[in-house]
Amino acid sequence: MTDEPELLLETRGLIGLMTLNKPKALNALSMTMVEDMHPQIVTWANDNTIGAVVIQGAGEKAFCAGGDIRDMYLNRGTDFGAVYYAAEYLLNVGIHTFPKPFIALMDGVTMGGGAGVSIHGSHRVVTERTLFAMPETGIGLFPDIGASWFLSCCPGQIGMYLGLTGHRMRAADCLYAGIGDFYIESTRQEELLVALSGATEIDERSVNRVLKSFATEPGLSPLAKHREAIDRCFAGDSVTEILENLENEDTDWAREQLEVLEYKSPTALKLTYRQLSLAPKVDSIADIMRMEYRMAFRIYRGNDLFEGIRAVVIDKDGVPKWQPDSLDAVSDADIDEYFVPVSDEPDFSQAELS
């Protein structure tokens, strides 16, 4: 007996349906899944019998919890990181530029790489089980998979706040932050698929009409309550200034953020701040991914990513030993190095589908 494939592909009427099929691993993206997804979306982009694509996760816990970071850890010292990031980021560009409706059912945990195969779509559906975050600074990484783009699109300083702290959001917060577009109860997802697959024509207008007919309101956004403080504190000219702003804020919420940031990788914090400061000036998604590839390429050759994975996933002691271990020890010149072009880096513009 063979194991089930990690990615299920099918057509239902005019819909191409992708199901991430590793529910026991929270549908974490493996290299195999990435390599299977990319050619399929290219095929569907050019297939006149396919009007839209829907992507979902198997099981009730997660859409996709992110990339398979255990694979990263086990392949330290090889070129696995560069190959994986290149393949994943090319896929992200393809989804971002997909010429037809691309509907992501973000039911359950949606983090990291899971955001890369959903947020870039044209229609992002959240449910009462959605738990969204970009927690990368906690493992010595930065919010990648095109987060430079979508975090910069968040209102005010919410993107900087999410990127630095890894704050977790439920459905109402996702809608408020512009991460999700429609709130639909999880129990109605199959009914939604039936409605989409039974349509006699599919385009952006008809997809919007169907989604709106299923959508309801998720309630008030907790994030909105702190919006003024977020904009005030996270508008600093550096990570150090953001920390100072939080100290001056002198509220329970601000103290909670200081405690969260204290445990993040100093290098990752400074790198993320630079990334999100530069992103609004970058012209295209291909250029965004080129920037992130350069950052990821060098992170994979350093200490903090592997130390973060060890502390959180492998040994689970929760005590990473960052190098350097303080913000003061990370210079601007150190951060500059992460943005230097890489030899033989991919041409991400070749992955654009429209």
Secondary-structure blueprint of this entry?
Elements: E1 7-12, E2 15-20, H1 31-45, E3 52-57, E4 62-64, H2 69-74, H3 80-96, E5 102-106, E6 109-111, H4 113-116, E7 123-126, E8 131-133, H5 147-152, H6 158-165, H7 171-177, E9 182-183, H8 189-197, H9 204-214, H10 222-225, H11 227-233, H12 239-249, H13 252-262, H14 266-278, H15 285-299, H16 304-314, H17 332-336
Parallel strand pairs: 2-3, 3-5, 4-6, 5-7, 6-8, 7-9
Antiparallel strand pairs: 1-2
Helix pairs in contact: 1-3, 3-15, 6-14, 12-13
Concise synopsis of the structure shown:
Helices cover 45% and strands 11% of the residues. With 354 residues, it is of the alpha/beta class.
| Measured distance between first and last alpha carbons | 41 Å
Q: Give the radius of gyration.
A: 20 Å
Averaging pLDDT over every residue, what do you get?
96
Give the count of structural domains: 1
The fourth-level CATH homologous superfamily is 2-enoyl-CoA Hydratase, Chain A, domain 1
Give the count of helical stretches: 17
What is the CATH class name?
Alpha Beta
Which residues form runs of ≥5 with pLDDT under 50? none
- Range of strand content: 5-15%
Main sheet specs: 6 strands, mixed
| Order of strands in the sheet with most strands | 1-2-3-5-7-9
Task: Please tell me what the overall shape is.
Answer: globular
Q: What letter string, H or E per element, gives the SSE order?
A: EEHEEHHEEHEEHHHEHHHHHHHHHH
Q: Could you tell me the number of beta strands?
A: 9
CATH architecture: Alpha-Beta Complex
Helix/strand/pairing category: alpha/beta
Proportion of helical residues: 40-55%
